[in-house]
């Protein structure tokens, strides 16, 4: 290509990084380009939150107008800022690789409270102008005060530094691209399966005129078709909901082990409690339509759900089901009792890691008032165990996500192989995590409780039966059978294995916590 291309971009540091990234990528394929900075509505109006701005494309409209006028050859956008429909005459020619679409919660260090979920103190003021973030944050921390936060990334961080807020939320991608030093803050990273990102978050879109085939063909060297396929699902969901920047919608699609996994969160308002859904499919065909149909207000939900554990009045799971008028029957079918009342102070002396596979393990361990080495690290299975650990004032250095313990074991082994790992737990542990560790790893099994099955367990007439452990399955089916209409949700593959042996079909939630359970019930 002989001509020098004009790249249209906003003038923020992040936008310029993105435009220069594309410019350098073009230079690598021998195409010259220069930048033209264009100010957008979103750059000019900084005193209003996004839901107060009129129209769509607050950060893109002016760039698109210059493209159509021919004063620039291509525009570089944060893909999440683009409306779901291109203006007539414009197309997306290329999509970049996707940065990690996780979110970061930046907290002033004197506002940190590790005993709270997300580590920010009770009643903290958190800055964000995103209704999507607001709804999801309040769902897990309703005590927080959410206040509008506008400006580019360095400006937002400056407002936190000036203590206008106790914490702020930012996309990890922007921080990573700018290479910002956040060491003065406590940083909590929320994975895209915990706090679901905006559709297309973390990717760049290169937009051109439709009647420029030469440029389109040249840009295919920069195009990542696999990313585009995933983003197409997310943006189709957004389009079907008729949403823009102000819609409290998160949608994240990824391909894992040959299957497309999609996580969706949608609330009516920023203050509203969101519904969440997890679906898995072999193909993206019709996937967005399937997801949106599950959010139909007229869709019939189960009338009653049984769960084999106690559920507190203020729990995420209860709030998620109550919103959809689903009755909960919560009762544990097992009892746990301590097996030791005193801990040998020498048993933990050389321990590098303490790993918990359940909340019970955490609680019974700390009842023993353990004398921990100064540099000990903690690993946990699932967010429930992580929250229990936080309540005792400790962070988890490793949190295993998902229900496949073999995958979790492999991830943990990459950190812990060759060290000494103590496993406080049940008297007869499953040893699922142990099996992933190498032979040179010293393993200490520390039984701190045992499980006792309840007798004469009463049957449930609930539409959905949730079993939280293999022991609960054993206790229920001593005297009871499933009714033909009842559907089963099993937490963890070891619980699911019990139903495999019984020949019973079941649903396995993506994550073995209250959010994962709510997703599974909502998806039935």
UniProtKB/TrEMBL annotation:
<dbReference type="InterPro" id="IPR036108">
    <property type="entry name" value="4pyrrol_syn_uPrphyn_synt_sf"/>
</dbReference>
<comment type="subunit">
    <text>Monomer.</text>
</comment>
<keyword id="KW-0627">Porphyrin biosynthesis</keyword>
<dbReference type="InterPro" id="IPR022417">
    <property type="entry name" value="Porphobilin_deaminase_N"/>
</dbReference>
<keyword id="KW-0808">Transferase</keyword>
<comment type="function">
    <text>Tetrapolymerization of the monopyrrole PBG into the hydroxymethylbilane pre-uroporphyrinogen in several discrete steps.</text>
</comment>
<dbReference type="Pfam" id="PF02602">
    <property type="entry name" value="HEM4"/>
</dbReference>
<comment type="similarity">
    <text>Belongs to the HMBS family.</text>
</comment>
<dbReference type="InterPro" id="IPR000860">
    <property type="entry name" value="HemC"/>
</dbReference>
<dbReference type="Pfam" id="PF01379">
    <property type="entry name" value="Porphobil_deam"/>
</dbReference>
<dbReference type="InterPro" id="IPR036803">
    <property type="entry name" value="Porphobilinogen_deaminase_C_sf"/>
</dbReference>
<feature type="modified residue" description="S-(dipyrrolylmethanemethyl)cysteine">
    <location>
        <position position="245"/>
    </location>
</feature>
<feature type="domain" description="Tetrapyrrole biosynthesis uroporphyrinogen III synthase">
    <location>
        <begin position="319"/>
        <end position="507"/>
    </location>
</feature>
<dbReference type="InterPro" id="IPR003754">
    <property type="entry name" value="4pyrrol_synth_uPrphyn_synth"/>
</dbReference>
<protein>
    <recommendedName>
        <fullName>Porphobilinogen deaminase</fullName>
        <ecNumber>2.5.1.61</ecNumber>
    </recommendedName>
</protein>
<dbReference type="GO" id="GO:0004418">
    <property type="term" value="F:hydroxymethylbilane synthase activity"/>
</dbReference>
<feature type="domain" description="Porphobilinogen deaminase N-terminal">
    <location>
        <begin position="5"/>
        <end position="215"/>
    </location>
</feature>
<comment type="pathway">
    <text>Porphyrin-containing compound metabolism; protoporphyrin-IX biosynthesis; coproporphyrinogen-III from 5-aminolevulinate: step 2/4.</text>
</comment>
